[in-house]
Amino acid sequence: MDSAEGPVTEKIAGVNIEILRRGKGRPILFLHPHIGIHGSGRFIERLAREAQVIAPSHPGFGHSELPRGMSTVDDLSYFYLDLIENLDLRDLVVVGASFGGWIAAEIATKTRERLSRLVLIGAVGAKFGAREKSDIVDIFATPRGRWEELSFRDPAVWLRDYESLPEEELTAMARNREATALFAWNPYMYNPKLRGRLHRIRIPTLFLWGANDGFAPIAYGKDYCAAIPGAKFEEIADSGHFPHMEQPEAVARHVIGFAGDRPRRRGDTR
User: Fold this and answer.
1) Is position 2 within any domain?
2) Which DSSP letter does residue 246 get?
């Protein structure tokens, strides 16, 4: 993790979870992509200048425990419903990136209680194309190097010297890949039922998509956005599938601005 101080382990809903907390104020729950929380530090720190950020490693990812029987993104979404209640989070902005966006969308189809805004950054999880064709790039069938080229405008953002990485980080990366296979392999990166449930999302929703995303095309993002009533779509220039990593300042400004864009109540003259 590349924030100033590392995460701590907390027992939440009976599960030992690696969790990073930053800042004060209105809560933002950040749900990381399938590559883990590594690389999201600058984005988290920028959000934490204006909000309270709660950034867990999903069960099975990083150094978080994987409970027996937890094997689907639906399971993960119910775990996060428990986390939101256990931490007594209210007026909550849920921000999910890629795989984390899938979890966030699943959460929002199940409840509006405690949630006020939803931000989906390059989210996956829904199926819009033909059944026999993948909507997004298969990370398990794409050679290392090529995947980075498709996922980042500047692959140097992610490329690292694996031989020099500490064992703890290598272990977390291996667990991230194993957990991704567990939760998202078959069917690949989507829940066949999610598309038909997206109409249930009734909180203000913002999609942020990298203009140079070669992993999940912009057309896919726009189809996703159109399936959620009233959702807005914004492209982030000079970024690929993980714009919060390549353009953390720009993405954070969008998130903070959207979080503060509250509809006026009748009679409110402020």
Assistant:
1) no
2) H
Structural domains counted in the chain:
1
Residues contacting residue 224 through CB under 8 Å, at least 6 positions apart: 120, 123, 126, 128, 198, 207
Q: Tell me if 119 sits within 8 A of 52, measured CB to CB.
A: no
Give the burial class of 25: count Cβ atoms within 10 A of its Cβ; 0-12 exposed, 13-18 middle, 19 or more buried: exposed
Burial class (CB in 10 A: 0-12, 13-18, 19+), 219: exposed
Q: What pLDDT is stored for residue 45 in this prediction? A: 98
Provide the token pair at 103: 């979890």
Distance CA 15, CA 79 (A): 9
Cβ neighbours around 8 below 10 Å, total:
10
pLDDT tens for each residue of 141-173:
999 889 999 999 998 888 777 788 899 999 999
CB burial readout 124-136, b (16+ within 10 A) else e: bbbbeeeeeeebb
Q: How far is CA 30 from CA 47, 52, 131, 133, 210, in A?
A: 10, 10, 31, 30, 18
Using CA atoms, how far apart are residues 219 and 127, in angstroms rounded to an integer?
12
Q: How far apart are CA 242 and CA 210, in angstroms?
A: 7
Q: Which domain holds residue 122?
A: 8-260
Do you find a cis peptide bond into 217, omega within 30 degrees of 0? Answer: no
- Is 190 contained in some domain? yes
Residue 125 sits in a domain whose CATH number is 3.40.50.1820
Whether 42 is in a domain gets the answer yes
Identify residue 80 by its one-letter amino acid code. Answer: Y
Asked if pLDDT for residue 116 goes beyond 60, the answer is: yes
Query: In whole angstroms, what is the distance from residue 181 CA to residue 186 CA?
Result: 8
d(CA 183, CA 175): 12
What are the structure tokens assigned to 173, written together? 């990366």
Is residue 150, in this structure, part of any structural domain at all? Answer: yes
